[in-house]
Amino acid sequence: MEINKVLMVDDDQSIRRICQVSLANVGKWQVILAESGYDGLELARKEKPDVILLDVMMPGMDGPTTLLKLREDDELKHIPVILMTAKVQPQEVEQYTRLGATGVISKPFDPLTLPSEIRKLLCA
Question: pLDDT above 70 covers what percent of the chain?
């Protein structure tokens, strides 16, 4: 799968910044940043990213709820979504997959290997 544009949705500014540097410099991808599920949905409709990285724990609309909204939208339901969380339990990963997530990346992540982790999940 060809990746050119990644939407990163996380309420933590430092995580957004680390992801932006990693994905742009290591992955060589265009990165769009959103700080909430609401912003993420709006930017996904406007920007049509190739993949969405989505934090699980966010105030307002959390990651799983945002994922469900993406899957209900005919224009967005085909976009692969990778959830990012500090709590990676097998039953939670299974639940996220049932909701339509392509995969899960655990936090903290290694900025140098983040793009290859994303590619691996998309090619699985």
Answer: 100
Question: In this structure, which amino acid lies at residue 76?
Answer: L
Bridge partners for 5 per DSSP: 30
Buried b (16+ CB within 10 A) or exposed e, 103-120: bbbeeebeeeebbeebee
Quote the pTM value: 0.96
Taken in order of first residue, the domains within the chain and their CATH numbers are: 5-123 (3.40.50.2300)
- Our CA dihedral for 69, 71, 77, 80, rounded to 10 degrees, sits at 100
Report the C-alpha gap between 82 and 17 in whole angstroms.
18
* Other C-beta atoms lying within 10 Å of the C-beta of residue 16: 19
CA-based end-to-end distance of the chain: 11
